[in-house]
Design brief:
Elements lengths: L1 E4 L4 H12 L5 E4 L10 H6 L7 E4 L2 E4 L1 H11 L10 H15 L2 H8 L4 H6 L3 H9 L4 H12 L4 H21 L12 H17 L10 H11 L2 H6 L6
Parallel strand pairs: 1-2
Antiparallel strand pairs: 1-3, 3-4
The structure holds glutathione.
The site of glutathione has 14 residues, from helix 1 and helix 3.
């Protein structure tokens, strides 16, 4: 099992957490996002989306962190991290899809650290050459904004508000140990990297027991898991 990842990437953190919950050994290979290694010809052959993470298992590459976690749970079912109930499984998939759709909000905060400064130092020619390699129009625009037109406070406020809606939805969902079906599993794992960034920088007060008691208790329990420590959600800044 080979995992191409980046230590601070939320999608990579997801897969690392899943691997650690299952106690699986893997060969971790860091892709340096600030040097655009994710857009190199060699990496694009493994993951044509030009993002991390990506894994190779039994010689076959797989991208998309949510899909990768589902694959891991199917191939290594112990401990099970997906609900057995078909309806709960459908809810889990919808939740992960929803969280995936919030990544643009997280990027607005995350790329201010390191990536933006590095891209801002590029000459226009270097920047255009770099951006030409980015496979998706959406990501090209995210790179342009990070490098050339930093997000405004109003845009950051809007992104923060979108992430807080996620926490509000979670407050209504949490039962027992988890977001879906009352059990900890892939929905929780998929959400943890986002909550980590909210806790660390974006809106720490939103996770206080007085603001959202269920989310606060869920987060405390999740961060106390041995797998969480092993997955290494080190400080971003
Ligand atoms: N939906 C993808 C998102 C992957 C993604 O956005 N990865 C980011 C890091 S969290 C990345 O590689 N960014 C670099 C870039 O867009 O150039 C997944 O969940 O795997």
């Amino acid at each position: 099992m080979v995992l191409y990842h980046s230590p601070k990437s939320s999608a990579s953190r997801r897969v690392r957490l899943c691997l650690e919950e299952k106690g699986l050994a893997y060969d971790a290979r860091v892709i340096d996002l600030s040097r655009q290694e994710q857009h190199s010809e060699a990496y694009l052959k493994i993951n044509p989306m030009g993002v991390v993470p990506c894994m190779i298992h039994d010689g076959r590459p797989l991208h998309e962190s949510g899909t990768m976690c589902e694959y891991l749970d199917a191939v290594f079912p112990d401990p099970p991290l997906r609900p057995r109930d078909a309806y709960d499984l459908a809810l889990m998939r919808n939740w992960i899809r929803y969280v995936d759709g919030l990544i643009g909000n997280l990027i607005k905060f995350n790329w201010r650290h390191g990536l933006a400064q590095r891209a801002a130092q590029m000459t226009e020619a270097e920047f255009q050459a770099m951006i030409a390699k980015v496979p998706s129009a959406e990501r090209k625009e995210a790179w342009r904004r990070a490098a050339r037109e930093p997000y405004t406070e109003a845009e950051l406020d809007e992104a923060r508000a979108n992430l807080l809606v996620m926490l509000d939805r979670m407050e209504g969902m949490i039962r027992g140990d988890g977001l879906i079906g009352g059990r900890y599993g892939l929905a929780d794992i998929a959400t943890a990297p986002f909550v980590r960034r909210i806790d660390e920088e974006i809106a720490p007060e939103a996770l206080s027991p007085s603001a959202r008691p269920k989310v606060a208790a869920w987060w405390q329990a999740l961060t106390a898991r041995p797998a969480f420590a092993r997955a290494d959600f080190a400080p971003f800044v």
